[in-house]
Amino acid sequence: MTDYAAILETIYADVQPLLVQGKVASYIPQLSEVDAAQFGMAVYCLDGRTYSVGAAGQKFSLQSVTKLFSLALAFSLEGDAIWSRVGREPSGSAFNSLVQLEYEQGKPRNPFINAGALVMTDILSSRSTASDTAILQFAREICDRQDIEFDLAVAQSEHGTAHRNYAIAHLMKDFGNLHNSVETVIDSYCRQCSITMTCTELAKAGSFLANHGTIPWSERQVLDASSSKRLNALMLTCGTYDAAGEFAYRVGLPAKSGVGGGILALVPGEMAIAVWSPGLDETGNSLAGTYALERFTSLTVRSIF
Amino acid sequence: MTDYAAILETIYADVQPLLVQGKVASYIPQLSEVDAAQFGMAVYCLDGRTYSVGAAGQKFSLQSVTKLFSLALAFSLEGDAIWSRVGREPSGSAFNSLVQLEYEQGKPRNPFINAGALVMTDILSSRSTASDTAILQFAREICDRQDIEFDLAVAQSEHGTAHRNYAIAHLMKDFGNLHNSVETVIDSYCRQCSITMTCTELAKAGSFLANHGTIPWSERQVLDASSSKRLNALMLTCGTYDAAGEFAYRVGLPAKSGVGGGILALVPGEMAIAVWSPGLDETGNSLAGTYALERFTSLTVRSIF
Amino acid sequence: MTDYAAILETIYADVQPLLVQGKVASYIPQLSEVDAAQFGMAVYCLDGRTYSVGAAGQKFSLQSVTKLFSLALAFSLEGDAIWSRVGREPSGSAFNSLVQLEYEQGKPRNPFINAGALVMTDILSSRSTASDTAILQFAREICDRQDIEFDLAVAQSEHGTAHRNYAIAHLMKDFGNLHNSVETVIDSYCRQCSITMTCTELAKAGSFLANHGTIPWSERQVLDASSSKRLNALMLTCGTYDAAGEFAYRVGLPAKSGVGGGILALVPGEMAIAVWSPGLDETGNSLAGTYALERFTSLTVRSIF
Amino acid sequence: MTDYAAILETIYADVQPLLVQGKVASYIPQLSEVDAAQFGMAVYCLDGRTYSVGAAGQKFSLQSVTKLFSLALAFSLEGDAIWSRVGREPSGSAFNSLVQLEYEQGKPRNPFINAGALVMTDILSSRSTASDTAILQFAREICDRQDIEFDLAVAQSEHGTAHRNYAIAHLMKDFGNLHNSVETVIDSYCRQCSITMTCTELAKAGSFLANHGTIPWSERQVLDASSSKRLNALMLTCGTYDAAGEFAYRVGLPAKSGVGGGILALVPGEMAIAVWSPGLDETGNSLAGTYALERFTSLTVRSIF
């Protein structure tokens, strides 16, 4: 039987030299103050066993990892109707570019670029006056902790520099692909991005996607098995910005990353893995976190390929 | 135990209404004359069992499926050095577009768009005066048949309308990313694209990639397990033109398609599947073939996700 | 001596069949209600003689023609400093596209596309809390009428559908090329666009640019001769959206058009010409208006070329 | 009366400090060997007077200046039919970019970018088996010298590095906008580009365009007045690569430049001016040459604006 505890310790030792090489996200003032030289990792097996190493109990800003939550929630509520408003293809350009969005008439390439996540938020805002609260409740449910919260200082910090997201939202509004006000959608988006979790919590939060759409402990089916499988496919092809191909090549697991330095990865049918290290590589993904996952799949022989 | 024979029969019945909906590739004169309403499918299990249905014994033009052969051969010979000349990211645009190639200074996004495949051919041409023969020999080895051949009429037909590939090759030459003459590379490329196989042969040809890089019957290791896994990841993220995300979403298997209507898909560790139906959807992938694979993963519960 | 009155009558007769062919701008609700089948034209010679025909006394919405006013005012106040924030090249794409703006890091190609005009407004807003009033005062001075006004219903109508301009402004804000708030700049921009004039007034308003930068009747030098000449050059290369080349080819005069159907054209050293017909061609320029100017240069042999 | 001789002497003195600042074109081997610190200028007045200064009698490679000759010749032979195959708008991107050409389905933006010039050559090749000879004969006629020649060493040098032009030609061939073989068109194109003239000869060669389309000494009408006016407009909006707006702003005359360092400019109805200095600015136009023309229009007050 695989000794995950030992493997995590090995990885922890291996990543140490990398912790000084990444750069923390600079465009959100609050995030730019985080110390890059931190690393945590946690594994949540579907049988309930959990393993962790390093700063796995330290809260961090989920940022784009929450795009997975808003997508899963919108998909569970609206089903395939969401695909009339967002595509399922890799973008081939930066996560916040407007070029492709203009060429493709305001329909984002996928739900994991900013434009696509704003559309998910818009869909949720059309169902509820407080889409941010709905997403927070969902986040609490899937990681089984009622004390998960927004970090309002981060939300405010992001809101103050959200000019590009405003540009994206207005462009989609111009094309008719945003039904609520730009302000409403951006507000909710900045708040959901600010949700904080620890690695241990995040691994647990991802477990329903490793478990064919059903939360392991409550047995509530969030998504049917087919939909869950499809979300995994989307994570693999589009979950790590414009480095999804490289990530799939190196790691070989469905994953979603955030500029806070977190990455959630899945071994379908077996486990969810969360890793956090705030130093980013040039593609905006956690440098040490990506390497840690690459080592994990090598040491456990757990790629999907 | 899964009854693959019955499953293939079910799929064969299911695809019948779709056979009239696709359109055969029109830009290569020879291919445009093929009857769209044909369908064949074959499964090659790593234990040697094989299953097939329909026109699985009918030869067809592999076209872009051969990009997998030239990549595997170049990768096996040159190792990671090939990645200095071609990327590993989805392209986000058509398989024969020049836009991204110009922005990215002549380095193709991945080895499965035409530009990337031309670079693989160029690499092989630098090793051998007859790169087309080298690829043909490789194709013969991996499907264990010495009678695999080019279809020279198709090669010539394609060569005569290869203006866009010439444009791509010259643009890369301008950027210094083509070391042999444009004529040499295009010649070899058109010939390799013209290789014909049956579904039964193609499924067998893909089996080494399902088998961690080793040819099952000869036990020759073409690629090590890690490299084979990585090729699978590339197939999933980039193997079906600008519909890779959609294909992963629907089918959930690594695959490589061609405009001849063939698709090779892999269930890592278990089997290779080949399907052929010449009617294409608007993304250039076999319409009935994609649906057949989607049905296959549903009926066998064999997605990687 | 050229009989301008007779020439205008000839043109008036010639354009009648065209009046039903153009389409009024549809994206601003208030403008979409205007009757397309109207035509007016006025000539203001630098010696004070004026000629007019048709609906030359009818007020219309100047829209993008006012980009010329904000540019001239900003240029007169700030001099060459404005060119650090806006370019002088034709854009090669639509007047409200974001693609080039993103590639060129938030620096608009020229002051006559929306992005560039927003930068001019931003510059004026940095000098004055009411840049819209400053532009209105300037408009009043150059056409020598104190009763020139905003059309607030049009301004409000435009503001309500200004999503794309908001997107452009936020994108420039993101790149640091907007110093005031997006709201401030868009407000002022929508108001200045709503200024109404008659053809007679507009021709007079343009006369300082035909007169080497000096208002003929007051002899106030708005721009020195060299700067005036340079603005004329900008009008010729960039003044009629993505049809500037076609316009120069057909008409051969510096001109600025607006989606309200107005066009101001200049014969340097001789006269300013205003034409109005609300039916637009597919490039967003007045269909009958462009034709009228083409006829005018033919009949008077007054091209600059 | 303007003392052109004195003005040219003044300019000659003024440009001296600039001669070391430009860089000679490096992509054509033969051109890269030219000494940058050279300068010549010549004026041909329509009454036959000529003025010159510096190295005005030195032959240089006309390169893209010859695009004017192929356009004028094709236009004189085919009339407006040429505009079905090439546009009249500035390109907004580099002279040899493929991006816009692909978006616009193989129709070049204007006849002065490489793609457009290749179409002109194609048109002439469809009329004559030796389009290069036809252009050479035309060049000889318009400058009244039978000893004008190709520089075959330059032509060959250019041909050997013409990969990007091959890419452009093949892309147009793919779109059906090239009727002769790529080889035929590129051959002719490289030869016409290699034509050499002195400033004195080039100024004379341009005089028919300053003279409303009629060669002054022979009174042969190459183009009617209207067509000649239109070519002037095209030169102004598109004649100096992606710096046409800047050039119009600074110089204010229709002009065509080449990477050999030559520029031909026109004062309609008065004169043609040729300037040569091989050091280029970053937009590919002669650095000292552009400045010399700017000084010329200032000193003679001869802008068209």
TrEMBL record, chains A, B, C, D:
<feature type="binding site">
    <location>
        <position position="158"/>
    </location>
    <ligand>
        <name>substrate</name>
    </ligand>
</feature>
<dbReference type="InterPro" id="IPR015868">
    <property type="entry name" value="Glutaminase"/>
</dbReference>
<keyword id="KW-0378">Hydrolase</keyword>
<dbReference type="GO" id="GO:0004359">
    <property type="term" value="F:glutaminase activity"/>
</dbReference>
<dbReference type="Pfam" id="PF04960">
    <property type="entry name" value="Glutaminase"/>
</dbReference>
<dbReference type="GO" id="GO:0006543">
    <property type="term" value="P:L-glutamine catabolic process"/>
</dbReference>
<protein>
    <recommendedName>
        <fullName>Glutaminase</fullName>
        <ecNumber>3.5.1.2</ecNumber>
    </recommendedName>
</protein>
<feature type="binding site">
    <location>
        <position position="114"/>
    </location>
    <ligand>
        <name>substrate</name>
    </ligand>
</feature>
<feature type="binding site">
    <location>
        <position position="241"/>
    </location>
    <ligand>
        <name>substrate</name>
    </ligand>
</feature>
<feature type="binding site">
    <location>
        <position position="64"/>
    </location>
    <ligand>
        <name>substrate</name>
    </ligand>
</feature>
<keyword id="KW-0007">Acetylation</keyword>
<comment type="similarity">
    <text>Belongs to the glutaminase family.</text>
</comment>
<dbReference type="GO" id="GO:0006537">
    <property type="term" value="P:glutamate biosynthetic process"/>
</dbReference>
<feature type="binding site">
    <location>
        <position position="259"/>
    </location>
    <ligand>
        <name>substrate</name>
    </ligand>
</feature>
<comment type="subunit">
    <text>Homotetramer.</text>
</comment>
<dbReference type="InterPro" id="IPR012338">
    <property type="entry name" value="Beta-lactam/transpept-like"/>
</dbReference>
<feature type="binding site">
    <location>
        <position position="165"/>
    </location>
    <ligand>
        <name>substrate</name>
    </ligand>
</feature>
<feature type="binding site">
    <location>
        <position position="189"/>
    </location>
    <ligand>
        <name>substrate</name>
    </ligand>
</feature>
